[in-house]
Fold this protein.
Amino acid sequence: MATIPPDIQNVIEEAWQKARVVSGFLGENEARFLGLLAASTPATGVIVEIGSFKGKSTVMLASVAARYGLGPVVAIDPHTAPSVTDPTVEAGASTFGEFSASLRSSGVGAHVEIHRVRSREAAAGWARPIRLLWIDGDHTYAGAKEDFELFSPHLSSGGVIAFHDALNAYEGPIRVFVEDVLRSNHFGAAGFVHSIAWSQFRPADGTAFLGQRNLLARRAARLIPFVARGRRVHGLGKIGYKLCRSRVPRTGVSPAEWAGMVS
């Protein structure tokens, strides 16, 4: 059962004040939800972040993890460019200096385990259970699929997987979420909070959530043709994409609402 710490709102607020000054593409409501997942996911194991960029989500996760003694956040990112999801970074440049500075200035450096490698390298020999798997790396279908296949087998029962930018016109996050999470009976409660897609790993009773997952999958799957094979949405396609996206429920959830969904 998910236990919501009584001081969760204050802890998330403090974490957000540290994270908000870090450059990145994580919105405030997304960051606050990520903090909630870190604090109250009802599972054992480590928090794994695939894709750190300059450290916005890392600072959020590590701040919450430090407050509740959850161990270090495992941050996996080679910090190299170019990348379609990091358009402001020039080819050949590195974000590692700014990432490191973000950890230092926010005071969470001691609570982050840095792996400056690609996810497939970090996955080699991986044997640690994962309570929260945050996938925000390569947004191509091949990249997101690989991250999912490499690390999701290590999810603890009751753990949560979350993808960033699932509703931001990239093929990888939305397609993997629909095809490999929502259509799998290994997963239970699921939803979207702004562009974050999330679901709880429940291999023992995932079938109990089949109706809810199928409804969400039908709506979310309508987005996939617009971004299939890496195409960018524009013109009339962009209008159609936004119309389909408007039918996907993606508002924030309160701590109590979220606890009720995963308990």
The chain has a mean pLDDT of 94.
